[in-house]
Amino acid sequence: LRNKIMDQERWNDFGRLWKKQIEADKEKFIIEECPILPPIIRDEIINLVSPLKGKKVLELGCGRGDLSVWMADQGAEVTAVDIGEELIAGARLISEVNDVNVNFKVRDMVNLQLDQDRFDVVIGMSILHHLSEDDVVKSIDECYQVTNQESIVIFSEPVENSKIFDFIQNL
Q1: Is pLDDT at 101 greater than 60 in this prediction?
Q2: 95 and 67 in contact (C-beta within 8 Å)?
Q3: 94 sits in which H/E element
Q4: Environment class of residue 67 by beta-carbon count within 10 Å: exposed (0-12), middle (13-18) or buried (19+)?
Q5: Predicted local confidence at residue 106, as pLDDT
Q6: The pLDDT of residue 1
């Protein structure tokens, strides 16, 4: 529990910083292209989820919300979660700057509390390596709870040569 609280505070610090940057120069935060990098991963993910129009999408660990905002701009109905209240506040600000509607929620991905929702796409970019092995398993179970048989779940991780990365690959 102590580590989760420390993580929340760390991400809240980022959120406060991002809010200041966004408020100082809103034009800099207009999202015109899919923010996933590198391009080879971006293109593959876009192909997997396209077309987004009309799909219900859940982004786990949305951070600043750039990807969620881009997907909403493509016509998806997006719910996005992260553990930091200040992160979510910054993401809402980016959503306002881009004039799109995203349902941002402060949630821990191991306990989403989205019982009634079912999503066509669940996506998490560079987040699983922040979790313990037990929490990775719990998060995957949470994904199962909010999807159906036609849904697609996508995780992309930049970390290689680590025990947690090996564990995730073997799931």
Answers
A1: yes
A2: no
A3: helix 85-97
A4: buried
A5: 94
A6: 53
pLDDT in the model for residue 52: 97
Per-residue model confidence (pLDDT) at position 107: 93
Residue 113 backbone zone (phi > 0: left; psi -120 to 50: alpha; other: beta): left
Nearest to 76 by CA among 95, 94, 58, 93: 58
Question: Which amino acid makes up residue 141?
Answer: D
> Which amino acid, residue 34?
C
User: 10 Å Cβ neighbour count for 36?
Assistant: 20
Predicted TM-score (pTM) of this structure: 0.87
DSSP assignment of 120-148, as one string?
EEEEEES-GGGS-HHHHHHHHHHHHHTEE
CA gyration radius, the chain: 15
Q: Are strands 56-60 and 119-125 parallel, antiparallel or unpaired?
A: parallel
* Residue in 79, 92, 162 with CA at minimum distance from that of residue 128: 162
- Enumerate the β-bridge partners of residue 158: none
Provide the percentage of residues in the chain whose pLDDT is more than 90: 63
